Amino acid sequence: MSHSADQITAPRPSQTAAAPAPVKSQKRQGRRWLTITLFLLPALVLFGVLVLLPMLLAMYTSFFDWNGLGGRPTDFIGLENFQRLLTDDIFLGDLKRGGLLIVLSLLIQLPLSLGIAMLLNQKLRGRGFYRLLFFVPYVLSEVITGVLFTMVFSPNRGLAEHIFGWFGFDDVGSTWLSDPNTVMYSLFFVMTWKYFGFHMILYLAGRQSIPNELIEAAQVDGAGSWQAFRHVTLPLLGPTIRISIFLAVIGTIQLFDLVWVLTGGGPLHASETLAVTMFNDGFRRSDIGYASATSIVMLLISLVFALGYQRFIMRRDIEGAITVMQDKK
Amino acid sequence: MATPTNYSRRSILGLAGLGAGAVLLNACSGDDDGGGSGGSATVEWWHIANTEPMLPVWDAMAKAYQSAHSGVTIKITPLENEAYKARLTTVTQAGTPPDIFHTWGGGVLKQQVEAGLVKDITSDTADVRGTMIDVAMGPYEFDGKAYALPVDQGMIGFWYNKALFAQAGVTAAPATWGELLDAVRKLKAANITPIALAGKDKWPGHYYWAYLSMRIGGLDLLKQAGEDGNFNKPEFVTAGQRLKELVDLAPFQKGFLATEYGSPDGQAAIIGNGKAAIELMGQWAPSVQAEASGKPKGLGDNLGFFPFPAVDGGKGTATDAFGGGGGFAIGKDAPKEAVDFLKNLLSIDNQRKAAATGAIIPVVKGAEDALTDPNAKTVAQTLASSSGFQLYLDQAYAPEVGQEVNETVAQLMAGKMSPEKVTQAITDVAQR
Q1: What pLDDT, on the 0 to 100 scale, is given for residue A321?
Q2: Is B43 left (phi over 0), alpha (psi -120 to 50) or beta?
Q3: What confidence score (pLDDT) does residue B188 get?
Q4: A286, B13: Cβ pair inside 8 Å?
């Protein structure tokens, strides 16, 4: 029995680490590290081989003019690929289009999800059904969603065209995906259709962790339902909203599958995203060096955003978790 | 604190690796089918005939070969055109090409040859090459060495709906560019969509610009540009201007920028359903029309073919043909049975069987008598009497140049780029 007791205490040294005997503590400290290493090793190896190594290799190939064939890249060109990016209209357009999608997500998609979540938090007949229904699109893969909406938006026999045709707007229905000026909004529509349910569930979970007493108390104090929402519910939903924004932005920066199937980035690059450009350059044009440079820029954008966002905006949300651990040490 | 889970939400990270992924794939892939010697061997065969009528025909040929050669297993992977290009690129970049794989020859094959991914089959196939028609080997030979064998050799031309032409009062197939524009005007006047075009796929659009360049500047112009990368020549600009004349008539179906080629509402289906009168497409057009429109016979007797018209004052002749066929290259690690099986596909009997479907135009002399479809016969005859041949530009040139041609011509056809800017953009890429 003492053997198994040892095993249990080993991974939880925090309870005993404060013990006064220093020698014993050092010994335990060493065993603690051994345990941590053993448990982390498989994950670290996988992370290293499947995440870090490809990143480093992509960084390496981004300094070469390389078509991807024939062993190692040899034509070192320094930062030329990155300079090319700065003058590439498609790449600069990707940034603009990504920005547009992010702005639309924050202004329309997330508030919509929040509204629906609040609505479905009310006592409502069949709300379980609605919750399920709105969550279903998120379960579909992006590829299936893409195929589905290419049919809906098909210029010549799509569902959208038929519906709009009933109201006499034949041309509106046929230009959803084929007009460079409307394609981004069509894409955003499909994105919203697919992801609003996911954010709705997040908000719903967040809302349900807020005790109803708080809202009742506010109402007793004379707050109307808007005031109660604005000054009680919304601030308490803060952590949930911040994580939801984070996921929406990162997801948008890396958007690929849906665009690829729905529009292929077209017409005329009008719906192209960074990831689509990268795919085109890498696999269609065999310009792996340049595509790697794009992927590195994409990584940097995501990384800077993720670190900055967590450092400045989500600090309070994650601080709790971290300080608790440090206190126990 | 950039938590990895955020990235793994999308499978994009795999793509972020790109070249890296290629290296990893290389390391991971087993070498189970390579270098087989006698006895038993597995031959991996990737082709793009993923629909009727060729899919079952090639299946049957593989089965027949297997039963005649015990121990040989032919593992077939049929892929749709676009999916095939994407998938082949990943495996070639990983350095593990399939044993037998579809190729259009030209610049892409040349790149694969230079990377040592493709077997030199010059001496192994000398006997078979002797049985082929003259223009067949062109796209598959570099420096006098053969790296692939064609099984199909066709050309691009206009496929048209005879009934719709009659309805619009177009009595003769257009022989000049001016007559083609007239036909388009008449069709429009009769409320018929003149031309179906798959703008989303881009490659069907480049046929127009390539053919016009050939008619205006001649074959040498395209060859020269391929070598020195200079597309800033008056003939190319003129080709763009002629094309713009057509585009200005708004001849394409509505929403053509989002239309695919082979989908159920795509270019081929539009023609097959009689919703547009003309498409500029290759020898495979009738079979894809039938397949995509869901009508087993497509347009049947109503479908006609005419070669790309001459352009007044052009240096090229109207008998020069543009297009390509399909061939098969042998991967670097392929067992010797792969070459033998490929040669077997090119036996006159098998070429006849393939030709009988009407989906391919055979390359082996004498097999063309098995063509039953009158349209296929017309293509074969036009090709046999052609004065010169140019491979698809997006295959003839290096991939980045070919893609730039496709994309800039698509911009031109959408009215977003001038003919001068098109040639400049292609030159920029070709000379980079």
Answers
A1: 54
A2: beta
A3: 95
A4: no
In a domain, A221, yes or no: yes
Same domain membership, residue A85 and residue A8: no
A141 and A25 together in one domain: no
The structure tokens 């991996």 sit at: B44
Which residue has better confidence, A171 or A325?
A: A171
* CA atoms of B370 and B361, how far apart (whole Å): 10
Q: Say yes or no to pLDDT of A3 above 70.
A: no
Same domain, A204 and A294: yes
Asked if the structure places residue A70 within a domain, the reply is no
Does A161 reside within a domain? Answer: yes
Domains annotated for chain B, with CATH where assigned, are 36-153+325-384 (3.40.190.10), 157-322+393-430 (3.40.190.10)
Which residue in B12, B89, B271, B406 has the most chain A C-beta atoms within 10 A of its own C-beta, making it the best mutation to test that interface?
A: B12
pTM of the model: 0.80
What pLDDT was estimated at residue A15? 46
Kindly list the residues from chain A whose CB atom is less than 8 angstroms away from the CB atom of residue B6.
246-247, 250, 302, 306
Residue A105 corresponds to which tokens in the numbers above?
């997500």
CB B255 to CB A175 under 8 A? yes
The alpha-carbon gap from A212 to the nearest alpha carbon of chain B, in Å, equals: 32
Q: Is B35 exposed, middle or buried (0-12, 13-18, 19+ CB in 10 A)?
A: exposed
Tell me: do A142 and A216 sit in the same domain: yes
Cβ pair A155:B199 closer than 8 A: no
Name the pLDDT band for A114 (thresholds 50, 70, 90). very high
Residue in B9, B12, B85 nearest the CB of A275: B12
Q: How far apart are CA A86 and CA A76, in angstroms?
A: 19
Cβ atoms within 10 Å, residue B26: 14
**The domain boundary residue, chosen from A61, A89, A107:** A61
* Cβ-defined contact of B255 to A302 (cutoff 8 Å): no
User: How many folded domains does chain A comprise?
Assistant: 2
What pLDDT was estimated at residue B49?
Answer: 85
Residue A172: pLDDT band by 50, 70, 90 thresholds?
low
Torsion region of B184: left, alpha or beta (phi above 0 gives left; psi -120 to 50 gives alpha): alpha
Q: What is the ipTM of this complex?
A: 0.75
Please check whether residues A126 and A240 belong to one and the same domain. Answer: yes
Q: What is the domain range of residue A121?
A: 80-328
Q: Which residues of chain B have pLDDT under 70?
A: 1-39
In percent, the amount of chain A with pLDDT more than 90 equals 52
pLDDT of residue B144: 87
> Per-residue pLDDT tens for A47-96?
999 999 999 999 999 999 888 776 778 888 989 999 999 999 999 999 99
**Angle of CA points B58, B60, B62, to nearest 5°:** 70
End-to-end CA distance of chain B: give it in Å, rounded: 40
Which CATH number is A304's domain given? 1.10.3720.10
pLDDT score, position A12: 45
Q: Which residues pair with B364 in a beta bridge?
A: B132
Quote the minimal CA–CA distance from A57 to chain B in Å.
5
The verdict on a CB contact (< 8 Å) between B95 and A58 is no
Asked if the structure places residue A134 within a domain, the reply is: yes
Which amino acid appears at position B395 of this protein? Q
Residues A163 and A33 in one domain: no
Residues B338, B349: Cα–Cα separation, whole Å: 19
A56 and A84 inside one domain: no
Residues A89 and A237 in one domain: yes
Please indicate whether, in this complex, the C-beta atoms of B19 and A61 are within 8 angstroms of each other.
Answer: yes
Torsion angle in degrees (nearest 10) through CA of B369, B370, B376, B382: -20
- Residue-wise pLDDT for A246-287, tens only, equals 999 999 998 999 999 999 887 889 999 999 999 999 888 888
